[in-house]
Each structure stands twice: as C-alpha cells, then as structure tokens.
Design goal:
By secondary structure, the chain is mainly alpha-helical. Helices cover 64% and strands 3% of the residues. It has one domain. The protein has nine helices and two strands. Strands 1-2 form a two-stranded antiparallel sheet. The longest helix is centred in the first third of the chain and has 29 residues.
Length: 246
C-alpha cells in the first residue's frame, strides 16, 4: 500500500467516524441518553461516571485543539496530519462518552402537549442556525481532511481568513450559541440530562474564552476590532461597525 493510498484511507476513516460520532451526538442531544451500556450502578456512581466521561472529552478536545499542543506534537505528528489525528481521537472519545453514558430514572421535568412541540421547534431552529453558521464560513474543514487531501493533490492549503457574514455579524461564536440552545431544548429533563447540560454548557463557555485568545493571536488587530463591535456568545447588542464580508 502506497503512502497516498494510506492517506486516502485515513481520509475515509476520519470522515466516517467523524460523521458517525456527530450523528450519535445529535441523537443524544435530541432524545436523551442512548442507553447502550447499562452498568447497573447507583445514582451517585452513575453521576461520577458521566462526569468523568465528560471531563475526559473536555480535556482531550481542549488540549489537542490548542496551537501549543500542535507545536509540541510536531516531531511525532507531521503537520498535514494534525487535523485528521485530532478528529479521529475526538470522534473515538466522544463515541465512548455516548456509549457508556448512564441514564438516570429520576425525571425532573417533562414537557407535554404544545410545550413539547415548542421545545422541538426551538431545537429545529437552532439546528438550522448551526448549519447556517457553518455555511457562512464558506470552507469549514470539519474533520481536518481538506488539508490532507490538498497535500495529496499537491495543492497549497487555503489561507484562513476572518469571516464576518451570516450570524457572525451578530455574535462571534454562533455555532457554540446554537449548540447551547440545542442542548437545553430537550423536553425531557432527567438527572443525567441536567448534568450533561450544565457540564457541556460550561465547557463551551470555557472553550470560547480559550479560543478567543487563539483568534486574537491569529488575526491580530482585525479580531480585536471585531471583539469590540460584536458580542462574544449571546446577541445582547447590535454591532456598531467593523469589517464585514456580506
């Protein structure tokens, strides 16, 4: 097997696992725990297991996405593979979280009738907003495979530029905003789901703060101006200026 063949195989595997993990996550967020593995433990043990699984994913994802980690791993992982390695590990860890997540029988709240449909409508609108935000970026390399594909084809990687269009005109991190809406738009709130909602919302907020530092370092004064004009995560004010690619 040639190196090019191995690289294309890696692209296929990365895309397949990435899409599978995202599909599992979407089903989890929409309908609650997948309830795939029952460990038959008590409520406190289940709480600790779910917390550990979530934190393990947070640490792995937040560590590997940082530029400092990429620089540290350069002697081990060739630059063109950074994206796919990150995606592969993240997908596997996320799938492990979802498969081992322990469902709680304690129900805190259940929406019925019209209120239930309202929750579903909010979820659908947030999901649509998420895809809108992704399309607004133009060339979103979700699983890091575009860089590897272009390398195989002998093409230079596309330069990363600051995009301010679509929902990015109102909030700097619309994808995270819509994720938070989807997380909380579940009509059945069990004890384990409340734990998931709180932990993952906090992680998103912390991740946004860390990502802001990387973006300032990457785009400099252009991003500083964008920070000044546009709210970070929630559309609490109307932009007053800044550059825009409408």
């Amino acid at each position: 097997m040639t190196r090019t063949t191995r690289d294309y195989l890696l692209i296929v595997i990365t895309g397949a696992l990435g899409n599978l993990s995202l599909l599992m996550m979407l089903v989890f967020i929409f309908n609650g725990s997948l309830d795939m593995v029952k460990l038959n433990v008590g409520q406190i043990s289940a709480f600790l297991i779910n917390s550990f699984l979530s934190i393990a994913f947070f640490v792995q994802h937040s560590l590997m996405v940082r530029e400092s980690f990429k620089r540290w791993s350069n002697p081990i992982i060739e630059g063109k593979y950074n994206g796919v390695v990150f995606s592969l590990v993240s997908s596997l860890v996320l799938m492990l979280v979802l498969i081992l997540w322990q469902k709680s029988s304690f129900v805190i709240f259940t929406a019925c009738g019209g209120l239930r449909w309202l929750f579903r409508l909010i979820f659908a609108l947030a999901l649509s907003g998420f895809f809108w935000g992704g399309r607004s970026l133009g060339s979103l390399d979700t699983f890091g495979i575009e860089r590897l594909r272009r390398n195989i084809e002998g093409k230079a990687s596309k330069p990363v530029r600051l995009v301010i269009r679509g929902p990015y005109r109102w909030i700097r991190h619309p994808l995270y905003f819509f994720c938070i809406i989807m997380i909380w738009a579940c009509p059945d709130l069990t004890a384990d789901r409340l734990l998931f909602n709180v932990l993952w919302t906090l992680w998103i907020i912390i991740g946004v703060i860390l990502e802001e530092r990387d973006l300032v370092s990457q785009f400099g004064s252009d991003y500083v101006g964008y920070q000044r004009d546009v709210p970070i995560l929630f559309p609490v004010k109307i932009p007053t200026g800044g550059k825009s690619n409408l």
